[in-house]
From TrEMBL:
<dbReference type="Pfam" id="PF18962">
    <property type="entry name" value="Por_Secre_tail"/>
</dbReference>
<feature type="signal peptide">
    <location>
        <begin position="1"/>
        <end position="19"/>
    </location>
</feature>
<protein>
    <recommendedName>
        <fullName>Secretion system C-terminal sorting domain-containing protein</fullName>
    </recommendedName>
</protein>
<feature type="domain" description="Secretion system C-terminal sorting">
    <location>
        <begin position="158"/>
        <end position="234"/>
    </location>
</feature>
<dbReference type="InterPro" id="IPR026444">
    <property type="entry name" value="Secre_tail"/>
</dbReference>
<keyword id="KW-0732">Signal</keyword>
Length: 235
């Protein structure tokens, strides 16, 4: 089974009337399997309203990655960790009509798997107030039976899948101050049912009564943040 690196993206643009605007795009989801030692994904940088080359800097705003995890930006065969200082000439957008295509290389660590967040700021070295920030969330559990796991909470996948009458989801809440729930959603993204996870229980029983056969999704929400989503089928 494949797990997925779910990329949760947050865009923050600094738009000044006299400044150059930066934009960034990446794929939203990248498949990740336990046998992978790393996973590459494309990143496209662009700038508008410019008349000269723009040198791009990269810095970390915040992160929750383990010490042995890494994220590198690769261009023209060279890769630099985001935890290192980028040379000023490494990333350059030549004109407003050009897109600078680079590669993100995520390297998972060997510790306990779960979610890792990192917020990167891509900025114009000549005008630091012109920037775009992107928050990337890696869901890199290498256990095909695990939807999410960290030091506070572990949640399994719905089984059996496909589901007939009832589906089950195992979980373990290890911290009393965490609020978690599971949303059942149809293919349109509408929430069918919202089920809180109790720290005094460890199994969620899900009834398919009243639901038509087809494809559905379940989303884990931790402290009001959508954390992980997977598909299940009702027969």
């Amino acid at each position: 089974m494949r797990n997925f690196l779910l990329f949760s993206f947050t865009f923050i643009f600094s738009l000044l009337c006299h400044a150059q605007q930066l934009e960034i795009n990446t794929d939203e989801k990248i498949a990740f399997t336990p046998s992978d030692s790393e996973r590459n994904f494309p990143i496209t940088l662009s700038s508008t309203r410019i008349n000269e080359p723009v040198r791009i800097g990269v810095e970390i705003e915040s992160h929750s990655m383990d010490f042995d995890e890494d994220l590198k930006i690769c261009y023209n065969g060279n890769c630099i960790s985001v935890f290192e200082k980028f040379p000023e000439s490494f990333l350059v957008i030549n004109s407003s009509s050009d897109f600078l295509k680079v590669t993100g290389k995520y390297i998972p660590g060997n510790g306990e798997k779960g979610l890792s967040d990192i917020t990167l700021r891509f900025f114009n070295l000549n005008s630091p107030n012109t920037y775009v920030e992107k928050t990337i969330t890696f869901n890199n559990s290498n256990n095909p039976d695990v939807l999410y796991a960290d030091s506070k909470l572990s949640v399994g996948n719905i089984y059996p899948n496909p589901v007939t009458s009832y589906g089950y989801l195992k979980f373990n809440i290890k911290a009393q101050n965490i609020k978690a729930k599971v949303l059942l959603q149809n293919v349109l993204g509408s929430t069918i049912e919202e089920i809180p996870l109790s720290p005094y229980e460890n199994t969620l029983k899900i009834s398919t009564e009243g639901l038509n056969p087809g494809v559905y999704f379940y989303t884990l929400v931790i402290d009001d943040q959508n954390t992980a989503t997977k598909k299940f089928i009702i027969q």
